[in-house]
From TrEMBL:
Pfam families: ParA. This is MRP-like protein. [4Fe-4S] cluster binds at residues 202, 205. ATP binds at residues 24-31. InterPro entries: Mrp/NBP35_ATP-bd, NUBP2/Cfd1_eukaryotes, P-loop_NTPase, YlxH/NBP35. It is found in: Cytoplasm. Keywords: 4Fe-4S, ATP-binding, Cytoplasm, Iron, Iron-sulfur, Metal-binding, Nucleotide-binding. GO terms for biological process: iron-sulfur cluster assembly. The keyword Cytoplasm applies. One of its GO terms (molecular function) is ATP-dependent FeS chaperone activity. Belongs to the Mrp/NBP35 ATP-binding proteins family. NUBP2/CFD1 subfamily. Gene3D superfamilies: P-loop containing nucleotide triphosphate hydrolases.
């Protein structure tokens, strides 16, 4: 796998901010938080340009969540052209190993060096152009992918930081602590922590009930001196939305035609209660000064 490592600084020169989304445990909602972060940043201003790089090599889900499954990636003489979200007028772009697999469901079984090569190639070869923010969705835990990202990005980008996603349960919190420890070890500033699947939004009346424990993420943030960015309840509307985005063929067309206005995913997302809650999270993020972000 050829890569052009020397191009990484030049590629990242035109990207104002890079946010790495981390979680200690799988399935806590890291990819859906990455997707929501991108959608909220996109809609925060009419000229904002946002990219998502999905480096969850063994379980890429961003193309599915953005409704971009199966889109081809073009290789130009100057590198890979990212995939643009339908109707986003080129303001939301995405790159994922999911676009490079022959079919959805194919798995990537790679050892460390090959994974590192892929990440290096993503960082050096994707033509993001000017971006206000690049969000990087990572695999759960802290592994080759995270080390590789830090090795290549920390020396070239001064606005590199992370968001940690956890659920409130003890097992997820204990894994989130490992992420925090990783971030501290590699001097990665943490913007804050989001507690996902915290309570349940009733689809009938919108009331939030605490089915499982809640508040564990907030308590951990306070204990560790992190910014607590907010809680997101289990939201069936959000699941329906992200699952519908993954439809292919006729079903997807039918879904898209219901909302013929540009960027149908965004229209649907804005109607969910998660979107309102995430607006507050973004507000907090935007207000954070970088000097308050660094920890440890
Ligand atoms: N707040 C939420 N309410 C309801 N469903 C959610 C919520 N957050 C995530 N989900 C759903 O839970 C599932 C797992 O979420 P997601 O893929 O974002 O997790 P993940 O941490 O990225 O997982 P992994 O890294 O292990 O692939 C998805 O089907 C997603 O739609
Ligand atoms: S939250 Fe309770 S009261 Fe509200 S609709 Fe659901 S079941 Fe009924």
């Amino acid at each position: 796998m050829a890569s052009n490592e020397g191009r990484i600084p030049q590629r990242f020169q035109s990207i104002k901010q890079v946010i790495i989304v981390l979680s200690g445990k799988g399935g806590v909602g890291k990819s859906s938080v990455s997707t929501q972060l991108a959608l909220n940043i996109y809609s925060s201003s009419p000229n904002v340009r946002v990219g998502i790089l999905d480096v969850d090599l063994t379980g890429p889900s961003i193309p599915r969540m953005l409704g971009l499954d199966g889109h081809p990636v073009y290789q130009s003489s100057d590198g890979w052209v990212p995939v643009f979200a339908d109707g986003s007028e080129g303001r939301m772009s995405c790159m994922s190993v999911g676009f490079l697999l022959k079919k959805r469901g194919d798995s990537v079984v790679w050892r460390g060096p090959k994974k590192n090569g892929m990440i290096r190639q993503f960082l050096s070869d994707v033509r993001w152009g000017e971006l206000d923010c690049l969000i990087i969705d990572t695999p759960p835990g802290t592994s080759d992918e995270h080390l590789s990202l830090m090795e290549h990005l920390a020396p070239v980008h001064s606005k590199l930081s992370a968001v940690i996603v956890t659920t409130p349960q003890a097992v997820a919190l204990s894994d989130a602590m490992k992420c925090l420890s990783f971030a501290r070890t590699v001097n990665l500033p943490i913007l804050g922590l989001i507690e996902n699947m915290s309570g349940y939004v009733c689809p009938c009346c919108g009331e939030i009930s605490n089915v499982f424990s809640t508040g564990g993420g907030e308590a951990m943030a306070h204990r560790e001196g992190l910014n607590f960015l907010g809680s997101l309840p289990v939201d069936t509307e959000l699941v329906t939305l992200l699952d519908a985005s993954s439809l292919n063929g006729d079903a997807a067309l039918e879904f898209r035609n219901e909302e013929s206005i540009s960027f149908p995913l965004m229209q649907r997302y804005k109607a969910t209660s998660s979107s309102k809650l995430f607006e507050a999270i973004l507000e907090k993020l935007l207000n954070l000064e970088r000097c308050n972000q660094a920890i440890g």
